[in-house]
Amino acid sequence: xxxxxxxxxxxxxxxxxxxxxxxxxxxxxxxxxxxxxxxxxxxxxxxxxxxxxxxxxxxxxxxxxxxxxxxxxxxxxxxxxxxxxxxxxxxxxxxxxxxxxxxxxxxxxxxxxxxxxxxxxxxxxxxxxxxxxxxxxxxxxxxxxxxxxxxxxxxxxxxxxxxxxxxxxxxxxxxxxxxxxxxxxxxxxxxxxxxxxxxxxxxxxxxxxxxxxxxxxxxxxxxxxxxxxxxxxxxxxxxxxxxxxxxxxxxxxxxxxxxxxxxxxxxxxxxxxxxxxxxxxxxxxxxxxxxxxxxxxxxxxxxxxxxxxxxxxxxxxxxxxxxxxxxxxxxxxxxxxxxxxxxxxxx
Length: 347
What we know:
Elements: H1 10-33, E1 38-40, H2 44-52, E2 56-58, E3 61-63, H3 74-80, E4 85-87, H4 118-130, E5 133-135, H5 141-150, E6 155-160, H6 174-182, E7 186-190, H7 193-196, H8 201-213, H9 238-253, H10 260-274, E8 279-282, H11 300-309, H12 314-334, H13 339-346
Parallel strand pairs: 1-2, 3-4, 4-5, 5-6, 6-7, 7-8
Helix pairs in contact: 8-9, 10-11
């Protein structure tokens, strides 16, 4: 899960690391206390078996290299604990990779590293060796291209949308979609409203009025509409930043939500571009996600109904709801190195 982005000072990294440990303790505690209802899936076979037993399968993934400081070996530790997917980036750049959403308030600039740092490049090989899926969902374009060049295993975008629908750096360009397809990977289209439908004119007008009040230029595209992303923010005092950010998010909260139809338009587009074998579906319920008609797990059948109406077969729908992801996970694990080798090589 996400950690509050900060300059990676020792104290902040330590706090992020503690947050991460706490989340891990909560999950493992749940598994210990409710063994008949929930378990960790360490392999695709575990996942299928737990599903067959009617149990919840927990899939451990980590989004954001930030809490790891600069410790490459932390990847081995977390893989041993069951981490099976790792995303370098969240909001804000870190020591490993550039984010698709740098934060000027923290003095980030776009493409600060020009993709992955040398540490990030080493991490790609390490994750491949460990059989951990690399999640490219929040990376900058250059960082994603670095992963595409270096990884010998398929990449996953665990929660993304096509830039064709909403033109922001956080969404994937056609070129990025192709890179993920060529790796053998999967793009999971996410039910996050702002990534699926451009902002209405009413909201844009309100945002531009807000920007005028804070001496910012009128919006040019949507990148700085969805977050406080203007470069000049790097010189603002904290109070001014806080006022602007809360006013911005209050306006965005009133935007009419995207619908299941908008979401399936995004699925259609992605399938059209890279094929049914490379597309999946992701929710983001705990982090601002949810579209009208699919606001919680109980409404998942509405997505399926829309897919059926558009002519997707049962086999296609099974691929979208996890079949493709499990295939990619199997392939990533197949390409891993046996533990003995990786230890020996590192001496």
